[in-house]
User: What shape does this take?
Amino acid sequence: ISDQKPLGCWSVKHGQILTCPVVCNFETHEYIAVHDDKVLRIWKNEDLNLDKAFKATLSAEVYRIHSLPQGGALVLFRGGGVRTLDVLLEAPQQEIESLLSAEAIRWSGAFMEGQEPVLIFTTEKNKDFFVYVQKPKLNSLHKYKLEQQKPARPLCFTAHITNQTVTLLCLYSNNSVYQVLIPLHQDTEEEKEKEEEILSKSLLLKLSVSGAALKGTSLVVLDKDHVAVLGSLPDPGKKPKECLTIWNTKFQTLQTSKELPLGTSGQLWCYEEKFFLIHGKVLTVIMYKCETSSLAAAVGKLKDSQTLDVSSFVNWNTLEDEELLVSFQSQESVALKAESRMNLRSNRSTGQSGTLSVGQLLLRLKDASNYVLETELKKLMAKAPTPDLQATIGCVVTALTDRCKRNPKFYPQNLLQEIVETRDLSYSLCPDLMAVALEQKDLQLLQICLERFPDIPEEITYACLKAFLSISEDHLKSVDVNLDSAICYVDIECNDMEVKTEILENGFSEEMDQDMCDTKIPKENQRDGESCPVGLQKAALLNAVLHSAYTETFLLPHLKNLPAQQAILFLRYLYYLYVKCSEKVNTTLPGIRSPTINQIMDWMCLLLDAQFTVMVMLPEAKDLLSNLHKFVRAQVRFYSELNKIEGSLRELQRLNHLRESQTYSIEVLEII
Assistant: This one.
């Protein structure tokens, strides 16, 4: 999430549907999914094909899978039956009891009480709501009926367990949160014979913000004294304002609130002191820290909340950055207001005054000259590092790229390069920067971004690769790029073809190669790996692409669109690097940020996967593929020979450990 980069993607077959959320089993580090209600799938991160993953068809439909850090995975079936995953996998077709009579499950949650997992779920039947508390390992089940609150009805539930008591919180349609306490019974004969118990509830919160009723859509528990509610506030004559609120349940006060102008999906998740919510078109992560609940703090927060200000309870920086960019791009005044509020809070907390907020700074730089831009940005970058500084600089860079798009003649090249080189930015902080650099053909800036940004989308990586391969060598000679990654091994003059080596380098020599292959390769093509197929500048740029992080699943479709001649040129360069690496005992190229053997091999395999059919059909690729095949086969043979003496080498290593360091001896080892 910090790099905003996809790490994996798995798909079910056409016609199949994932029917419950996928979870991660904390104990085995495996993913668990259910498709088409009854088909269980289990796989690991390194598994690429979901169709080849473990599959088990169950006898009943699954409602939800819950994973607990120390309690394993629990499977809840639509009929109310519960099984631990281990028990279920022992006999996937085992009969699952049906506990529900025309009841539909509305919510479920899993918790740990001591060493025992506890599953709680609520059901609805004819507008009546029921609560089930189950301990699967103890085969214990208790059913309760929830007291009605006509005409209001429950919208969502959440719960936590403290001191053998389940606290169930219910968000109702009358803009209120109710609390239900359920003791965790020890199973006795009396308990088993007891009739269905009706649970009474008590009003915990009346959701009112500055006199307006908050219509909640999602509720999560933060700790024993705090809850978060996602909802909307009425705005007369306008669309309701969505907002995230945090409440102190002990003193029934609003702790803090934040408007969400880009809109949400109505869902809110909470995990390890982070909120997860859809804000606009992105998944937003917001950190928070629960403060010790006290009356003074609660009253203080209530005073702030009346003006819809924000306390230090939550780090809202992520949201403010998003709002600022959207507002600035649409040239609304909301940005200045939002950032002014942020600046006022900052001034109150640090005692500073007279400094520009981000919104004010952006408005000042909107049409400023290059001199003013440079002066203001140098002031900004000279500031002592703060948590907000990186985000502020990211906003400024985004504002500059917006100006570049509006005015193609404006492009502060040196300023942008200096910012990227001196600040640990990321693609997500300034998402349009590389697109503008591609438009301006700023190869130096693209090289810096590829080397420094950890979260570049595969589409942009491909666009850079295509641009680098398409630019002529003559043009590149006049371009100033960093050559450190290539200058130590790329042959600048490649005309001398009389050099020949008699040394067997990592298992490859021309004689060995000819022995292994009946096909005679023309003399002029036997040395494709010896001369660099691209110039020094282009090699340095391509090395930056090789260093860029990517996910194979997302890059492969783009590589399939690479023009055939560019694909062949890129493969020739990768083959050249591969041969150069193999000349060294440690398979490491000299230089700063030179490609590693793993990067070279990964890109070579990826390119061949994407372009193999095209290359097989092209006559000009035939010799290249043949040479590459021979070289790899020679390497495989060499390492196969090494494997044969692996046992003897290990024995030698063992004897070296056993030998006393002060004793001189001569030993003869016979390798059979």
